[in-house]
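Q: What would this chain look like folded?
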Amino acid sequence: MTQTLRGFSGFVAGKTRFTTIPNDFFSEVLPIVDDLAELKALLYTFWRLGQGEGDTRYLRLNDVLVDFVFLEGLAASPEEQKKIASDAFARAAQRGVLLQVTVKRGGEDEIWYFLNSQKGRDAVARLRRGDFKHLMHDIDDVVVGLEKERPNIFLLYEQNIGMVTPMLAEKLRQAERDYPENWIRDAFSLAVERNIRNWAYISRILQDWAEHGKDQPSQTGRALTTDTRTPLESNDEEVFILE
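A: My prediction, written as structure tokens:
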């Protein structure tokens, strides 16, 4: 069955307004964004922030969830639209493109997003210090919490090793299900520290911790090395053993 595409009649004649997007978005962010809703959320953020004034610009999730023109392109039902939108913005913050902050306003918690630019980071730093001046909305004198930066395993891999292939993606998802988040972060850090940047090595670290315990005395001084006695198997991944 042929899908009917919604048409576009063309950009309006006359003076057209443009939205500024940093060049780094096309060279650094666009190649790694693999979710359409997240991409839409980021483009929407650039547009909305471009409408603001001053150095303290942010986007409230509550405002996003009542923009029915934006939501309509995400899903059919209103409930699914809001969930997809919320997840998309959270994903963009988890990736590090946006900064997510939770504030208390009128006794209720609100989620705000800042662009992870120098101005955005400066604004978040002011909020941390309790400086609530120059905001478009009044908030209470307490910032409930700055969301902890928790890059997911895909971002950790891309930042420290390289691009995630489809074959590797499922292995990474399984690792997220199998191991605590702090173990995964620590395993990546250990691999980087030892300059052995591949998933086979990181996976073996996690397996060893699961079998023998993490941060136990028996683990002190243990290292992973390439097993030269074992032939390489599939996917050209190296096999490691414990010394």
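The beta strands are 59-60, 98-105, 108-115, 145-146, 224-226, 240-242.
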